[in-house]
UniProtKB/TrEMBL annotation:
Protein known as: Uncharacterized protein
Swiss-Prot/TrEMBL keywords: Membrane, Transmembrane, Transmembrane helix
Taxonomic lineage: Eukaryota, Viridiplantae, Streptophyta, Embryophyta, Tracheophyta
Domain of life assignment: Eukaryota
TM spans (from-to): 20-40
């Protein structure tokens, strides 16, 4: 009986650990996407600024 209880406890802990790992992986995935978007917005703004400066320079 004790062996069955221990086996069930280990199985439930393994399931809980997999559940936590899947949540952490999902959060990591979201963080990477957010970071990518932040870099994209930053560099896109820099490119627009550079393009505007270049355009105003060529109009002179």
């Amino acid at each position: 009986m004790q062996r069955q209880y221990t086996s069930n406890l280990i199985a439930s802990e393994a399931l809980e650990a997999r559940w936590y790992c899947s949540i952490l992986n999902f959060q990591l995935y979201l963080a990477v996407i957010l970071l990518f978007h932040l870099f994209w917005e930053f560099f896109e703004g820099k490119m627009v600024q550079l393009y505007c400066q270049f355009s105003s320079f060529t109009l002179l």
